Amino acid sequence: MSSSVESYRGVSACSAESEQARVATPALEAEVISLFDELRPRLLRYTLSCGLTAGDGEEIVQEAFIALVRHLQLGKPRNNLRGWLFRVAHNLGLKRLSENGRRREVAAGIEEAERHIDQNPNPEEHVAFSQRRALLLAALQALPDQDQRCVRLRAEGLRYREIAQVLGISLGSVSASLTRSLSRLGRVSER
After folding, report:
1. Nearest Cα to 88, choosing from 109, 102, 68?
2. Which of 26, 39, 31 is CA-nearest to residue 84?
3. In this structure, what DSSP letter does residue 25 have?
4. Matching CATH number, 118-191, of 3.40.50.300, 1.10.10.10, 3.30.950.10, 3.40.640.10
5. How does pLDDT run across 153-177, given as a tens digit for each residue?
6. How many CA atoms lie within 13 A of 31 on its CB side?
7. Is the entire prediction scored with pTM above 0.70?
8. Interhelix angle for 160-167 vs 81-100, to 10°?
């Protein structure tokens, strides 16, 4: 009978410890808020460029940061949290796309992402920019999905190693993909 009491106390102690682990410390809260302020717009742009709606993108960003809090509360590694967040958002985005059973055109996602960016060119610059943008979007859409994802993640400032981790591919594949993609986009841009 005493063994069952000790077993219950052990479970209660474990529950109390896990409850304490779920409480965010002020330092942890400040760290997550700082990362949220820095990375939210970039994560949202990335999810939108993958074809998610603004609502889905916002939810995925929130889910990624909730996962980050849990990750940090459990004392898991803190190295490369930026890459970790992009990886989580990427995986959640793919899951959401497959759950929804739909894919929007990438151009619609990019246009929606650009609505979140303040751009105020003069009329002449606007026309030139629009023409160049249309050519580059067409060239970007012609790239294979993996190449498009590599370009988008690189545009968000991730390093090659981080892109490889986010997409689950080798560093050599990232390098080859970006070299090939940037060469194609460069040729289109020179026109």
Report:
1. 68
2. 39
3. P
4. 1.10.10.10
5. 998 899 999 999 999 999 999 999 9
6. 14
7. no
8. 40
